[in-house]
Specification:
The complex is a heterodimer of chains A (305) and B (376). Chain A is α/β, with parallel strands linked by helices. Helices cover 31% and strands 25% of the residues of chain A. Chain A has a six-stranded mixed sheet. In chain A, strands 2-1-4-5 form a four-stranded antiparallel sheet, with helices on one face. Chain B folds into two domains: 3-47 and 244-370, no CATH class; 64-224, no CATH class. In chain B, helix 2 (16-47) packs antiparallel against helix 11. Chain B starts with a helix and ends in a 14-residue tail after the last helix. The chains are: A alpha/beta (305), B alpha+beta (376).
Amino acid sequence: MTTLTLDVRNATKRFGEGDAAVTAVRGVSLGVEPGEIVLIMGPSGSGKTTLLSMMGALLKPTAGSIHLDGTEISALPESRLPDIRLRQFGFVFQDFNLLSALTALENVAIVAELAGLDGAMAREKANSLLTELGLEARLDFLPEKLSGGEKQRVAIARALINDPTLILADEPTANLDSKIGHEIMRLLRRIAKEQGRSVVIVSHDQRIRDIADRVLWLEDGVFKDMVTMATDPVCGMAVERERTVSAKRDGETYWFCSRGCREEFNGTLAPDGQTADRQLTSLRRRATALLTRRPPRGQPSRYGD
Amino acid sequence: MSATLLLARRNLTRHRLRLAVSVGGVALALTLTLALDAIYAGVARQLTTYVDRAGADVWVAQAGVRNLHMVASWLPDSVTDEIRAVDGVSGVTPILYSTDSIAAGDERAIAYVIGLPAESAMGGPWDIVEGSADVAPGEIIVDRGFARRAGVSIGDTVTVLGGDAQIVGLSRGTASLVNSVAFVSFDSFRQLRGGAPVISFVLATVEPGASPRAVAAEIERRVSGVSVQSRADMAEAERRLVMDMSADVIAIMSVVGFIVGLAVVALTVYVATLARRREYGALKALGTPDHVLYRVVLIQSGLTVAAGFVVGLAVTGLLAVLVPRAGLDLELAITSASLVKVGLFAAIIASLAAFLPIRQIAGLDPALIFRKGAAA
């Protein structure tokens, strides 16, 4: 039997007390195998961020447990969690969150140094990682001088520098254009597969579904069955067709994350027929075809939420 | 270089204008304190110059008189012989003393006026830059700074003690911010003061190997109606008097300097931390222990204050060189005690200034890093 890298067992997270209590995650279970890439999708407010925070030892579950490589990290005292995060997790953020005063090399090396690696060795390791990620010409650049894709590659190098067991990525393509976003995700997949690292990605981005071994849908704090998905043609957000607003145009149906997006969609169609046609064609291209989540390895989640 | 030092240094140098303002503010505040201390120490040193340089081991004054500044001391002529007869005394010189103004044209300045006996062994000027070191009746030796300001020189006449005196010598190192020292003949002084057979002080030297304090005690035991002190005790009494007179001002200005320095550093370190709140949140999320982040803030605060201290010291040192050259009778003496005091001030400022930013970091929830648009 394979030991799970990450094992989330009936995790619940409740914020507040009494009538004001809000349950963000309800009894979620999830197992991630070594080298597996899991993509968690879901609408805004579905509990993705809370779940990610719990998996990353940034939040403790109100009930249930979280195990990393067999250690129940949710039971560890608060004082031990920073060290766990530093050595066993790699984080990739939507906004990159690089330290603006440090160069690309220093941004990566400092995390290794904080984990106890000697300064020179940390720089050497960071140099090697960044070179591997194609940034050898950008080592001494400050983040402000890097493109979005380069920043995210630096962030990935930073996430990898301490040889983590699990990489957690929060909307890693949100601030990247389509091509670069896809490149970055393929890079992350290659690294995960080559180095046998598990990756959990939280994203709205439908385009990165193909790099995941498994795609899960989180809604109202629980993993749900497969639903039919569409892409909001205005904001690009993945939306659940059955639960959202739609509009028809020229015989085609479009789905939106909110009434605002629908109104904006309707408003973009100019009275000038030619312009309107061009815009519609463009929007049609942007709108992804119906998306049906595939049950990876035969089931939506290991514990069948 | 450690990761924390690197991060702190880079955080500081990333915004050079902010760093310059911060260091400048601290430097200004510490310069205020350092310069005031230096002025105070310089004035104290100048005020005791005459006591230190008069050549006496022991000073004998009217009972109850323990310093020169703003006092009158009158002793009968006869005590000079009584003191000379005390065991351990090797020489005595009686002097007359009064605080008076010297006037030359429109220039008028306060001076310790010393009446010197002819060919006195002690109590006279110790550094004559022009003219004679001896004063005959109707003559005076004045400080060269006063002479320059008044536009007078050797041979010119000034008014002192209600009479005229001709300048026969110019001395150096005999002026302070408060007053200068002028020397007239003993006989002129006595005549101008009505001719009473009195003296102000008796300056005494002690036998080689004798303790000035022991001899002073012996004089006080043997001669009635006198207060006797060693030179060191007399100078200390003079310094204490100056300190008593200016301690409040020095203390207030030191507190002002401290508060200004604290406010400047606290504000800039706080703003710098606030601007990087999200980065600190990211570092926390990545697993950086809180104490490491606190150290980064403390180092930033410490480096800012240290740079401000160095600049403040350099500015004060420059002032100490330039002020006397500007012709001012002001000496800035940077003492080790002042350096220790201001250094402690700086350390306290650095620690206190880091307090708020550290609290801010302590309150950061690393989980907020995943919230879009959240402050962390």
